[in-house]
Write a structure and sequence with these properties.
Keywords: Membrane, Signal, Symport, Transmembrane, Transmembrane helix, Transport. The protein contains 16 helices and ten strands. By secondary structure, it is of the alpha+beta class. A hairpin with a 2-residue loop joins β8 and β9. The radius of gyration is 31 Å and the shape is elongated. The termini are far apart.
Length: 460
Amino acid sequence: MGHTTIRSRGELLVVGLLLTLGLQVVRSEFGDLAGDWLVDYGQSELRLLEGESQQVQLHIYNVQPKDASLDYSFLVYSKDEQRASSLVTIKKEDFDQLGSWRGLVDVTGERFGYSSLEVELQSAGEKEVHPNPLAIVVLRSRVVDERVTTYVSAALALLMFLNLGTVLDLHRLAGIVCRPVGPVVGAVSRFVVMPALGFGLGRALWPGAWPMQLALFYTALAPSGGLANVCAVFLKGNLNLSVATTTINGLLALAFLPIWILVLGRLLYEDDELAVPFGQLSGGAAALVACLAIGVLLRLCLPRTTRFIFRFLKPLSVILSLCLVGLTVGLNWFVFLEFTWQVLVAALCLPLAGYLATYLLSKLLCRSATDALTLAIEASVLNMTMPIVLLQSSQLEQPQLDLVLVVPIASSLMSLVLVILFYGVRRCLGWNKRQDEDGFDHKQLIAEHEEQEGDVYQRP
């Protein structure tokens, strides 16, 4: 019995030793098969455009197998074949007596992004990869200048604000400004709650990729644009509060964005080179206020002209919104090639969490259901243009900038999809109705305008 136990233990020790040796073979360190062989690429980095092919002057030398009869070969390949393609096999017969080989290797850019040129030694099922691959950077072939997208998107957004400015109620707008509880809630939500949510989600989803974290943070921090105001129109929200909050947040962004960017760059990401586009921010805020003022003046001075806008407010808003979204998505369609589950989770969770947090904050401060809905929409409908401008002003180089644009675009689109679903549910259940006098009612607005015009005509 004792001999049987000893024998069993001995067999276990032998099996364990074999397994250990097997693992050592699989995990063999560099230099075990053919000495400390070296690779020279003739350059420190290879940069090429999509569809472009370049040749790398590869030199493999100091190959000194421990066994002269060892049969080996080298495989040269791209680590990420979706970004760049290259595949060359170099046999033992191709090396000279000194263990050296020199030749050209073709590398073709497939899709913008990063890859590396790997050199791998293969022999009898064992592999060694050289520890210093050649970095490959594939740049996107640009068709349209980025400034075209920015300027045209800004023009469409300003037309949207001009359109909305004609339906503002100055008396209610003055009341909101005199008692700015609603705009204060909107500012706290935009510049405190949303940045915290964006930072936390970014750290959780991309723990080692700070550019993706930065993109999500900018998406959460950027004030909502005219799309939030259009959503407030369709969901029977308080349009005056929505426009006032958008305008105030746009002005406050001139102060809060630099503060957050400085804190973010120096404390969180240890980078003090993040730039703030003061010129574009201040110009955009001034143009926003100017367009709203022009819309109000049109209503006061040219009431007959604004009757057209009253009757076709929703179609005009939809058309401008579709043009804005379609232009941005159409010129940046390539970002959807980088869509991952992390991007999907971020695009879903950020607007949902922003909506719930803002709605609860509004109700805690005794805001009406209409005001709470409006402020929640203002926080959850994400801006698409401003985060792109902020990222373009950062120190991100290409193609890293193109890779992170998927975050603001996908998040903004997902926030609009959620609003559309919310609107459809409210319509189906009969909940999409005006809840109080501050709620926007398109038909009542037209009736009031026609009544005012009738009173003017009846005066002697």
